[in-house]
């Protein structure tokens, strides 16, 4: 164990925070963690249930340095820089919600105690491979509670089993923040599949499916650079869209958190306007062999390239939202996206965006073309999409 935000604690001190977070990424520091910090500091009653215990889940040196820095209790900086509604924002905030910091292997016993005690909310952001299972995790290994599983889903299942054994009636909401559609349902499905595979009790499986609340949500904020050893540089725009459901406990009340009955609208908007815009610029960067260090802002300040992207938005994407009855909202979102891509402070390199480019095109462009085709069949209105069709010509 490490020191809390408020006082030094002995290495074996209990974990006392109501929010348990798996992952130390700069994104979480500048998004969820900062939201909770601002809610706690607002003084508004009930704005947040309390602080966060963050769990290092990897063995790399950067994560270890972040945990050590988070554990000293002084908070960490978040530089918020960019344009917002035409106004320049350049501010340094301090995140103070993380009160305790532990390592999943070294502090497993403390985590098992915490899940049986104060924890009300679990948050995760475990990266692209976070839901991958590990063959070393099996029913025999799981039968030893003191043994730390290897994969995140198995670790989570083990902790939830401990929770069920000790506090089966206590409310618990889980917020996976991985960029996966229906992320809450997907993670729940993996946990249930493991529990069935390992022949766990039916009552426990019902606990997973009927008692635990697994939130589907979408996170949206560009956090372009880390501050070492801990902290981040982020844009002013931030959104956490969370799908409403009964018994859901949110980590905090915050202007950037939206509870919605239509999460798919937010997902589609981000995918087809922001993410597609990034992928279009990356396509041109690759095709035209542009400067190796070119950033999104640099590309947006090229008049010819900017005009092409604007044409894609106006003529090939927004008409789809018009037919969906979401045109006004999409147009307003494009204005926000334009400001975000023109942010001169974020070193958002097209070389980074261009990684896994073919797969990104399949996720971000192919579904839009299919949606446009289906709307054309249903409405008889033809949406011409030559630039996007050309991008996908060699990939479909």
Topology:
Layout: E1 19-22, H1 26-30, H2 32-42, E2 52-56, H3 61-70, E3 76-84, E4 87-95, E5 98-103, H4 108-115, E6 121-124, H5 139-142, H6 152-166, E7 173-176, H7 183-197, H8 202-211, E8 213-214, E9 217-220, E10 223-226, E11 232-234, E12 239-243, E13 257-260, H9 263-287, H10 296-300, H11 303-323, H12 327-341, H13 350-353, H14 357-364, H15 366-379, H16 386-392
Parallel strand pairs: 1-2, 1-6, 2-5, 3-11, 6-7, 7-8, 12-13
Antiparallel strand pairs: 3-4, 9-12, 10-11
Helix pairs in contact: 6-7, 7-8, 9-11, 9-12, 9-14, 11-12
Write a structural description.
Residues 19-246 form the Mannitol dehydrogenase N-terminal domain. InterPro entries: 6-PGluconate_DH-like_C_sf, 6PGD_dom2, Mannitol_DH_C, Mannitol_DH_N, NAD(P)-bd_dom_sf. Its EC number is 1.1.1.58. One of its GO terms (molecular function) is tagaturonate reductase activity. This is Tagaturonate reductase. The chain is α/β, with parallel strands linked by helices and 396 residues long. 45% of the residues lie in helices and 16% in strands. The protein contains 16 helices and 13 strands. The chain has a 6-stranded parallel beta sheet with strand order 5-2-1-6-7-8. Strands 4-3-11-10 form a 4-stranded mixed beta sheet. A 3-stranded mixed beta sheet has the order 9-12-13, covered by helices on one side. A hairpin with a 2-residue loop joins strand 3 and strand 4 (87-95). Helix 6 crosses helix 7. The longest helix has 25 residues, at 263-287. It is globular and about 60 Å long. The N and C termini lie far apart (51 Å). The relative contact order is 0.12. Mean pLDDT is 94; it is low at 1-11.
């Amino acid at each position: 164990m490490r020191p809390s935000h408020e006082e030094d604690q002995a290495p074996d001190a209990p974990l006392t925070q109501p929010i348990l977070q798996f992952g130390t990424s700069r994104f979480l520091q500048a998004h969820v963690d900062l939201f909770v910090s601002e809610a706690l500091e607002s003084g508004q009653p009930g704005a947040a249930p309390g602080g966060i215990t963050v769990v290092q889940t990897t063995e790399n040196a950067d994560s270890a340095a972040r945990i050590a820095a988070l554990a000293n209790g002084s908070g960490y900086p978040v530089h918020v820089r960019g344009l917002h509604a035409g106004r320049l924002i350049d501010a340094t905030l301090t995140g103070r919600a993380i009160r305790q910091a532990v390592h999943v292997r070294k502090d497993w016993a403390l985590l098992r105690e915490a899940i049986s005690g104060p924890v009300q909310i679990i948050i995760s952001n475990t990266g692209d491979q976070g839901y991958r299972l590990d063959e070393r995790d099996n029913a025999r290994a799981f039968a030893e509670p003191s043994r730390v599983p290897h994969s995140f889903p198995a670790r989570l299942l083990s902790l939830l089993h401990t929770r069920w054994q000790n506090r089966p009636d206590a409310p618990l909401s889980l917020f996976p923040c991985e960029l996966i559609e229906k992320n809450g349902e997907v993670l729940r499905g993996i946990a249930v599949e493991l529990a069935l595979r390992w022949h766990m009790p039916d009552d426990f499986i019902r606990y997973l499916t009927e008692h635990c609340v697994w939130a589907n949500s979408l996170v949206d904020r560009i956090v372009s650079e880390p501050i070492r050893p801990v902290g981040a540089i982020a844009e002013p725009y931030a959104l956490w869209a969370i799908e409403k459901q009964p018994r859901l406990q949110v980590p905090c009340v915050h202007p950037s958190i939206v509870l919605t009955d239509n999460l798919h609208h937010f997902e589609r908007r981000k995918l087809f306007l922001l993410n597609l815009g990034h992928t279009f610029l990356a396509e041109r960067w690759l095709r035209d062999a542009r400067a190796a260090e070119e950033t999104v802002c640099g590309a947006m300040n090229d008049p010819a390239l900017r005009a092409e992207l604007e044409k894609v938005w106006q003529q090939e994407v927004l008409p789809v939202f018009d037919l969906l009855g979401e045109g006004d909202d999409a147009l307003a979102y494009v204005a926000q996206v334009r400001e975000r891509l023109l942010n001169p402070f974020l070193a958002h390199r097209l070389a980074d965006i261009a990684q896994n480019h073919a797969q990104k095109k399949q996720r971000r462009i192919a579904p839009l073309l299919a949606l446009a085709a289906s709307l054309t069949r249903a409405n008889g209105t033809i949406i011409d999409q030559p630039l996007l069709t050309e991008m996908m010509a060699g990939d479909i």
